[in-house]
Amino acid sequence: MKKSNRRELREKVLQVLYAYEFNGEGLTNLTEGILTDVSSEGDAAFAKQLINRVVSNQKVLDDEIRARVANWEMERIALIDRLLLRIGITELYYFPDIPPKVSINEVIEIAKEYSTSNSGKFINGILDAILSELKKSGKLNKSGRGLIEESLPKKSVED
What we know:
The chain is built from 7 helices and no strands. The chain has helices at 5-23, 27-34, 41-56, 58-68, 79-94, 100-114, 119-137. Helix 5 runs antiparallel to helix 6 (100-114) and helix 6 (100-114) packs antiparallel against helix 7.
């Protein structure tokens, strides 16, 4: 089955972040090198924006993860899982045009391909918890048709 264009871009973002995690420098060179075969300017812009948001907000993102994995050290979470969680949280927080379920499903599918057999469930649990809190607090910044889940008001039953 052919992967969606955005899935391939997210995988490239994961590659950049993975290499950057070990290198700690040269983010621009890593990004340019890994995105070299991305022909669409819009696609390249999306990937670069995602990379830059993850890197610039890493402390906030890691705090969100830590808050949900009590009694578990960040370093014990598989690196791929940590990076995918950062990508998913970044999309939930900073990409109002991407539906939350799409962000969550995409990182779960990538985890199934690149990480452990339990990674999908682990990532889903954390991202679902964050999504629920964002909805409850009214901080979910999503707009447009299909981007927010709207439930119909319940009919009142009158006797």
